[in-house]
Automatic annotation (TrEMBL):
This is Protein-export membrane protein SecG. It comes from the Bacteria. The chain crosses the membrane at residues 61-79. It is found in: Cell membrane; Membrane. One of its GO terms (cellular component) is plasma membrane.
């Protein structure tokens, strides 16, 4: 197995893990009202809302993970386009 094939495999595994983690982080956000989050348990989120600091940290983690997720997708796309694998 070549080095680039190993890199591709590792990036694909990281991409799957990041996708699952990103989904979980997005679902942890407090609903802003009027959307699906209110339809499925909106009353609970109003009573058990997170603090401002926790919400800001959750936002930061979500943004950082989303940027890494996009970077991995771009890297895999470039590797495929230029036939590096």
């Amino acid at each position: 197995m070549s080095t680039m094939a190993i890199v591709k495999l590792v990036l694909q595994i990281i991409l799957v893990l990041f996708s699952i983690l990103l989904t979980l982080l997005i679902l942890m956000h407090r609903g802003k009202g009027g959307g699906l989050s209110d339809m499925f348990g909106g009353g609970l989120t109003q009573n058990a809302g997170t603090s401002g600091v926790a919400e800001k940290n959750l936002n930061r983690w979500t943004i950082v993970l989303a940027l890494l997720w996009v970077a991995i997708i771009i890297a895999l796309g470039l590797m495929t386009k230029f036939k590096l694998i």
